[in-house]
Amino acid sequence: MIPDINYWAVILATVSTMIVGSIWYTPRVFGTYWMKATGVTPSGNARDAVAPILVTVVVSFITSWVLAGATFIAWKFYGGGFLSSALVTGILLWAGFTAARFITHDAFDRRPRGLTILNVSHEFVTILVMALIIGVWPPAGA
Prior knowledge:
about 140 residues; mainly alpha; about 0% strand; about 80% helix; globular
């Protein structure tokens, strides 16, 4: 079975990751804590952000595409509503892959527990927003 994917939803979900990240890591929200916990000091040069932003866009597109495909497969297999399939699939993939891997690596890297919680929570919100977008705009065959 080849998953039917709404690529407009995938593109919008990709863009949403940039919006969520821009809000989440702004100094007025969690950015100040994140910079302190990671030891990152902004250079003040906007060009320094270009490469990380491009990487984020590519990786976010891949994540959105995989989530859309996994949602379609789960929906076909289990039935039910497409939105609920997207949300449950997103949460399960986040818990089983994203959160589990962050926690493992951060424990070995001896990162502050608060930083791990901050980043895992950011990923949870990001995946939920992506799942919501994908679930609200299912492919034509759904």
